Amino acid sequence: MQEIKKYVEDNKQRFLDELFELLRFPSVSADPKYKGDVLKTAAFVAEKLKEAGADKVEICETAGYPIIYGEKIIDAALPTILVYGHYDVQPADPLELWHTPPFEPTVRDGKIYARGACDDKGQFYMHVKAFELMMKTNTLACNVKFMIEGEEEVGSSNLGIFVNANTERLKADVVLISDTSMISMENPSIETGLRGLAYMEVEVTGPNRDLHSGVYGGAVANPITILCKMIASLHDENNHITIPAFYDKVVDLTAAEKAALNSAPFDLNDYKKDLDINAEWGEKGYSTLERTGTRPTLEVNGIWGGYIGEGAKTVLPSKANAKISMRLVPHQNSDEISAIFQKHFESIAPDFVKVKVTAHHGGEPVVTPTDSVAYRAAEKAIVTSFGKKPIPTRGGGSIPIVALFEDVLGIKSVLLGFGLDSDALHSPNEKYDIFNYYKGIETLPLFHKYFAELSK
């Protein structure tokens, strides 16, 4: 541990400077105007893997953005760790809500503010620097393979093709991912499950053109009004989702599982204060931790239609649109949920509008075992690094490729994240604590060490 700490201390400014360089690339995969920047980011990642000591580093082309692959095989008899991460980021909009430019990293109160600081550039780059540390100190205990993609924020549509075509190259004993969070640095935790995702877009069309709201208002249905009513009907008075068959495969936690989940440190008043809300909201009969980690949800991610520019324009719009995501729990399937959503949404449309439903990307929920060699290695690494045993938690987010790795490669993943729920992922002013960044670089080599030892 002392050798690890010394290497980090001796190189901490360079580690930070390199991360800042990475964060300056606006690698927004959702917006085609950033294509050149996304490709530059891929080249940067490949170069840094080479510098760290990886062999066979390759920028693997796909139908979308490339996947960066690299490896270091030191002994075929040793276990192999496959490190996954992503170099693409969410759009920075709305830009006016950022206190500092999203692609010019700024440090305030020991925190790095930038788009991608935590999700996932700051976290995957810890692995690159931890790998460098192990190479330079001659302490690499396992074979390592890296697979860093550029389309996670748009559904990883090409990753499955790549994984299926490269099963031999990607053969490993475990997938190691840092794209999740801990409760806090004082209360370290390991996520043992992720929710799945079904992402939909809906369009409601009324008249064949925008109309004058005075001439036609009151006689022609307003698509925005109708869409809002349809969306509102998707939850009942108990905030229970009303789509038929939606809960058919959902299994409630046992009393013991509920008790374990709710034993994690959580202060509802702090939670409300952090978000500046007066009360929590959610499905009746469940705690906040249960709602965010173990229950399915349906959320409107965006809604638009009509005139939203400066000043007034008295228009009755022709169309209204919304983007809707559903988080799924074990036994639910994204294709099945997408299908029953579409059927239900079309069925509740009144005759005076037309409805179009489009399914975008999805992913399956996963639960990882807490008795595996990989989990025990992660637990031991955190005990050594933090001085206390981590708490197993369930993550509310989705990483669709975790289920893909299990299905295609036949291996489980360990979710060893160092972010915080308060890091404003996908929001303006995303941040990542410098302490967490360095702590990750210190802890990851310990996982390699203990995974090798426990695999014997």
TrEMBL record:
Gene Ontology molecular function: metal ion binding; peptidase activity
CDD domains per UniProt: M20_dipept_like
Superkingdom: Bacteria
Gene3D superfamilies membership: 3.30.70.360, Zn peptidases (3.40.630.10)
Alphabetically ordered keywords of this record: Hydrolase, Metal-binding, Protease
Peptidase M20 dimerisation domain: residues covered: 192-351
Biological processes, Gene Ontology terms: proteolysis
Pfam families reported in the protein's UniProt record: M20_dimer, Peptidase_M20
Statement: the UniProt record of this protein carries the keyword Hydrolase: yes
Transmembrane residue ranges: none
PANTHER family: BETA-ALA-HIS DIPEPTIDASE, SUCCINYL-DIAMINOPIMELATE DESUCCINYLASE
Name of the protein in its database record: Contig1, whole genome shotgun sequence
